User: Fold this.
Amino acid sequence: MYEQIAANKRRAVLYVALFFVIWVGLGVLLGWVVAVWSPRYATYATGGAVASRAVAGDVVTGALIAALLALVGIAYTLTAGTRLVLRVSGAREADPVQYRQLHNIVEALAIGDGLPKPQVYVIDDASPNAFATGISPDKAAITATTGLLAMMNREELEGVIGHEMSHIKNYDVRLILIVSTLIGMAGLLASIIWRSAFYTRPRGKDSEQIVALIFVTGLLLSVVAFVVGPLIRLALSRGRESLADVSCVDLTRNPAGLISALKKLESNDKPFAKFNHATAAMCIDDPLQHHESWFHHLFDTHPPIAERIANLERIAQGQSL
Assistant:
């Protein structure tokens, strides 16, 4: 299993590197578009070497700006990403007295895994769910909904928390944070650019080029935010969820708890009101899988719960996956 964890980490890092390359490639493409559509290009076109240098300068500038934005996104994630996720999810610190059982389970599993105890949060939501976030085991948090706490018995809750502790131990929460931030940044920039396209009315002889550039930029950012980014997050998430299930069994020595918890989650029909697309990939039960839209299912970030249960039942019977 430790070999699987190491391989999962390597693949996850490759996905983040790929996303960074996509951002830089986007900057290169936009730099080229700016150069070719600029009136300067027409002026330099008769001089091949001069034109080539002008285009190369804009391309390099575009790549550097895109790389800087990606690095800023990663830096922001590492310094404030955890607080942002908890804030947008409506999470609050779990009172140690009111949620004593939850704190006890988190502390016991942290000791068993040799990790610092994560911060414990709850979300007032009737839908049963939980997620872990953080940049490292030293700066991690586990969050559970009140619906989950009401539905699960102690054994099942231990299975759910063991699953989330495994995400922290495997360091994949950091990678999901980084990828989600870069996707969110692309979506935010795309939204700003599309708004400017509808409200900006450029004038002058270069107005058509400016409008075309705005639309191309918005289109490329939209593709990154709503197609390429979610597909990368999907590939990253599916592997980490299966691995966290297996790691949970290794930690708790009790597959029955997580199996029973997943069966209850599978039958859940309450939508997660506080979820958003950035945090959906972090949840033990993907909220989007409870939507009927075929479009949502294209971006499911988790394997089907029935498949996860079948894998855990094979482990409980002593079979290998």
